[in-house]
Specification:
It is a single chain. The protein is mainly alpha-helical and 31 residues long. The protein has one domain. Helices cover 48% and strands 0% of the residues. It is built from 1 helix and no strands. The chain starts with 9 loop residues before the first helix and ends in a 7-residue tail after the last helix.
Length: 31
């Protein structure tokens, strides 16, 4: 198995971006 990430659900995309944002130490202005 490779490390390819496949996301079909938009909710998963938002959750992933949220995790990335939190890990970078800043908060988005939109919810």
């Amino acid at each position: 198995m490779g490390h390819v990430l496949i996301i079909d659900d938009e909710h998963d995309v938002r959750a992933l971006l949220s995790d990335i944002v939190k890990s970078k130490g800043f908060t988005p202005n939109h919810c």
